Amino acid sequence: MDFLILHDGWLPILSILMILPLAGAFLLFFIPKEKFQKYWALGVTIVTAAVSLPLYFLFDQTTYKYQFGEHHSWIPALNVNYTLGIDGISLLLVLMTTLLMPLCVLCSWRYITTKVREFMFCILVIEASMLGVFMALDFVFFYIVWEATLIPMFFLIGVWGGERKLYASIKFFLYTLAGSVMMLVAIIALYFNTDPHTFSIPLLMGQGHSSIFQNWVFVAFFLAFAIKVPMFPFHTWLPAAHVQAPTAGSVILASVLLKMGTYGFLRFCLPITPLATVTFTPFILWLSVAGILYGGFTALAQNDMKKLIAYSSVGHMGFVTLGIFVFNPIGMEGAVLQMINHGITTGALFLCVGMIYERTHTRELDQNAGLGVYMPVYVTFLAFFSLSSLAFPGTNSFIGEFMILAGAFTKSKLVACCAIPGAILAAAYMLRMLQKLIWGGTDNPTHTGLTDLNTREIVTLAPLLILVFWIGLAPKPFVNVMHVSVAHLLEQVNGMQTGVAPIANFMMP
Amino acid sequence: MEVIISSKPLVAMLCALIGAILVSLSGRNPNIRESWSVAAAVCMFAVIGSMIPEVMAGNVYKYQLFDMLPGLSLTFRADAFSMIFAIVASFLWILAAFYSMGYMRGLEEHAQTRFNTCFALSLFGAIGVAFADNLFTLYLFYEIVSICTYPLVAHHQDEEGYSGARKYIVYLTTTAKGLLLPAMILIYVLTGSLDFADNIHTGIFPAGVNGVVVTILYICCLLGFAKNGIMPVHNWLPGAMVAPTPVSALLHAVAVVKVGVFSTTRVMLYVFGTDQMSALNLGVPTAYFVSFTIITASIIALTKDNLKARLAYSTVSQLSYIILGVALLTPNGIGGGLVHIANHAFSKITLFFCAGAIYVATRKKTISQMAGLGRTMPFTFTAFGIASLSMIGAPPVAGFVTKWKLLVGAMEMPAHSIGILLVLLASTLLNVGYFAPVTYRAFFSKPPEGEAYEGIKEAPLSMVIPLMIAAIISVIIGIYPDFMMTFVNLVTK
């Protein structure tokens, strides 16, 4: 257990983080009125966020080991344990998840009018399971929480979604389930190929399996995570799910669920199958570039704001996978930071779309054109988040993209140059959306009677705006926590690399 | 050289930012709103003025605001080079603030609060560019200028305004994202830092960096700062002339385009450095490349009857003088280029001010309609004449200093002197060709048939006084160029 620093306080803080929303969810059934249920859900998520904050300050930045660890035997016969712990990579994801959830409750305040109790129940359950994903260090528990995120999300889309909610929810469920099954096979294969048999994720790292076996495991993992990210060409479920999901569902989906895919690459693919990772790197880099360009071009053609942002996510997540697979510190740190940035910025953009949909009941750009005069506060927020999304210097995404592209230029100038048009496209589709919403053209629809943002909505957006500029101008507190963990991860990959030539060397001049 | 750690450069910028916020909050009362604009402009000029003595003594102000990553920070510096641009821009903002008050009220334009807010924000960006200490800070404020000037270009919100503004933003963001961003990141990867060098010679590239890569980076920077109006990325400028004239005046004669050439020359001298440029033989090709712009834009200007369009192409042509001067890589050439940042600013803003004054007084846009108008609007056309002489480069107006330095700089070149001299000669003749007729016809031609200019008089005083001041200063800095030359000599030392 030398990979784990057990938590020595009297309270197991990571378990508490999961139990709080879970317990809160079940207690919802004892709360009578819808109004109180909302306040209860808000309170639970805020308390969870408050409990998670000390993690940052207690976190030891000088070690790569998993901290705040908990380890209990669960099914001794199969060597299944309940092991939790976080390192520099998962810490920020945990904090982002807990921070976003109160905002998800706030944005549903008026949006959700039916089955409020059940809605809040789903939100709280999904919070608990998402936190579990980022904390789990044992495959069995990991698989359970990984699958557990699907069910509340399925209901969020299927019950509170738009017109084609059933289609979207089933498509979402089938796609991700298909990936998960592949992952289950890989997990079991790993279990039986390791001596002694273990599900412990850190123990499975660096086992030195044969490269053929690693290739198969990698492919299985890759499919699961690539669907989740989603990487081009596995992305088709995403726009459908986003368009039909309620605002809170879109925010959770974009900000957290997608990160589970890239987190999976970092936590499993790279350290467990390093040989295969190196082998497949050129393909993944080019798939990332394809995603960046495809997402950008498709976003440029959208008239539905949610679709636009959904396709922009495909592009942004392409940058993240690009950063992960360049295998140098700056690129990988940029990728982890960009995961957080995308969570903040795209989450905020979906919140913005939700706010406008509540007012005009349409997400079409043309029908929402020229709002600037009527909703100055709203468009100011939207402008800042859009600029963040297009990686305007001084905002969070710029730092992330800068680091990723710096890493990419170090790895291969050709790949980096091919990704650059993605940055131009991001500016193009974001500025196009912004221009239409704020200014429109000479024949805008009339919007008289529209009210600007109320206090609740401003409170929802303000924390994200602060983070946009905080990370954009002073990223060191966020980057420093991951230094050691990223360095260790790279060591795990590069240590295995000697003597292995990537197939398709010709693809990487 | 001494480094003074002081927040003065930041304070100067904050004057504009706070001014913009106050303007946007006081939209209900136009008088208070406009007084915030003027107050911000005066404060900014005062803060920048207070730095002049130390900078003239050869010292440099520096201030680090945020330290982001190793080698990447938000840092400001005020050295002689930045002062050339900062003094000019902040001083002309005062004139433009008064002028735009007269113009916007005279035409009863809509959305004046938004207009004034964005105006101040653009100055915030422009001064940020002037005081940037590294490529990242420069890029940040360069982009702020792009975004904040969009509402100014699209001000009229008609089809023409939108299409001009779309062209404007597409050109500027595409070049910035597509060329500058990768160049910046690659420079960071190669050198580990984006900070400018302390002098114009050494550059920041360590020995042994591949010359081909440096050349590619250089080309990316030259074309990436598309605000410099180099052909073939100049087309946004004529399109942006749909904006109200004060915008054209300040932003497209001073702030925006000068941000472009300032950034270009800053990067040429302080990132690549004259040594590297000479070693890679980048100077002469650049000089010939921009010469094409100088000549072609002048020829296009000849064909334009719309006064603002003619001025726009004149700007495209004149901006390339600045880059041409720096590309000569001789002390006098660089000096001539840099001093033209100031000289062109004062003269060109005079010309635009005149065009706006004519429009407010007569609603006339084309040169052919202005025949004989000089006798009705003597002050405006006199100022126009003076500024034209400066553009042509006739003594004793400011432009003469530029031409003189450029010619001396061209003579100092080891080779290709004749070619550059011919370009300068040809462009001067073209300048005469497209500027002289405007003034000549205004004073000496007969008015068009059936046009008596009845009831037309000079534009309001708040417009005529600024344009006269700008014209007079054009003459003063032509006769006494020492003030600006002090800074220029500090740079080329």
Sum up the overall morphology of chain A in one term: globular
The termini of chain A sit apart by: 42 Å
Structural class of chain A: mainly alpha
Largest sheet of chain B: 3 strands, mixed
By DSSP, the count of extended strands of chain B is 3
Q: Tell me, rounded to a whole number, the average pLDDT of chain A.
A: 88
Reading the helices and strands of chain A in chain order gives EHHEEHHHHHHHHHHHHHHHHHH
Low-confidence stretches of chain A: 498-507
Largest interface comes to:
A-B, 31 and 29 residues
Element pattern of chain B in H and E: EHHHEEHHHHHHHHHHHHHHH
Major beta sheet of chain A, specifics? 3 strands, mixed
The Rg value of chain A, from CA coordinates, equals 22 Å
Strand order of the largest sheet of chain B: 1-2-3
How would you sum up this structure, described in words?
The complex is a heterodimer of chains A (509) and B (493). Helix content of chain A is 70%, strand content 4%. Chain A is mainly alpha-helical and 509 residues long. In chain A, helix 15 packs parallel to helix 18 (455-473). The longest helix of chain A has 32 residues, at 329-360. Chain B is mainly α and 493 residues long. Chain B is built from 18 helices and three strands. Chain B has helices at 8-25, 30-50, 52-56, 80-106, 112-130, 135-153, 159-191, 211-224, 236-239, 245-279, 283-303, 307-327, 331-362, 378-392, 398-412, 417-444, 461-479, 482-492, and strands at 3-5, 60-69, 72-78. In chain B, strands 1-2-3 form a three-stranded mixed β-sheet. In chain B, helix 1 (8-25) packs antiparallel against helix 5, helix 4 (80-106) runs parallel beside helix 13 (331-362) and helix 6 (135-153) packs antiparallel against helix 10 (245-279). The longest helix of chain B is centred in the middle third of the chain and has 35 residues, at 245-279. The mean pLDDT of chain B is 89. The A-B interface holds A 387, 392-394, 399, 402-403, 405-406, 409-410, 413, 416-417, 420-421, 423-424, 426-428, 431, 435, 439, 441-442, 473-476, 479 and B 66-69, 72, 74, 136, 139-140, 143, 147, 154, 157-159, 162, 166, 169-170, 173-174, 177-178, 181-182, 185-186, 188-189.
